[in-house]
Each structure stands twice: as C-alpha cells, then as structure tokens.
Q: What sequence folds into this?
C-alpha cells in the first residue's frame, strides 16, 4: 500500500487523467466493475464494512480509477475526512478484484 504525501499527489494526478465519462449500468454484484468505461466507482477492501467494523482504517476505502501507466489503480481515501491519501497499483484487473470490491 502506498500512503504518503507524494503518493497522494500522484493519485490526484491520476484522478485528473481519469476520464469523466462513461456509462452507468446496474451492478449485479460487488465484483461487477472494471469495464473499459467503468471509472470513479467507490470501492472498499474485501472484508471491510464501515461503520460496522472496528478494524477499519485509512486506506480501506477508495475510488477505482481504471487503467493508468500499465496498471489498474485505486485512489486510497482516509476515513474522515475522505481525502485522497495515496494509491495502489495492480498488474491485472483480477489482482485488483482479489483485494477490492464495490462499496
């Protein structure tokens, strides 16, 4: 997990480069994201459930940004306030979905 001021700045750059268009579609499951035009969806680490869980921490929630620089990205968020604090990069969409689901 990459959480730092520098990573937060990089994540904001990736946010700026993420398309603001796409189509909304009904989701069939928490794993139903990652299509070519699927961006800006709120995600959470698998197994985390705010506010019900007492083990939730900064970086457990984020925003799916799609494919950037040869990797699939999630911008990580703090709990309160929900600021961007970093990002995680995955080599494949399958790797990302092994850790993240729709919130």
A:
């Amino acid at each position: 997990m990459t959480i730092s001021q520098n990573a937060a700045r990089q994540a904001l750059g990736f946010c700026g480069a993420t398309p603001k268009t796409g189509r909304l579609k009904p989701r069939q499951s928490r794993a139903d994201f990652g299509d070519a035009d699927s961006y800006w969806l709120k995600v959470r680490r698998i197994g985390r459930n705010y506010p019900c869980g007492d083990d939730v921490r900064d970086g457990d929630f984020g925003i799916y940004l799609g494919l950037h620089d040869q990797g699939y990205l999630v911008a990580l968020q703090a709990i309160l306030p929900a600021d961007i604090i970093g990002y995680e990069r995955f080599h494949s969409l399958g790797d990302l979905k092994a850790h993240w689901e729709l919130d």
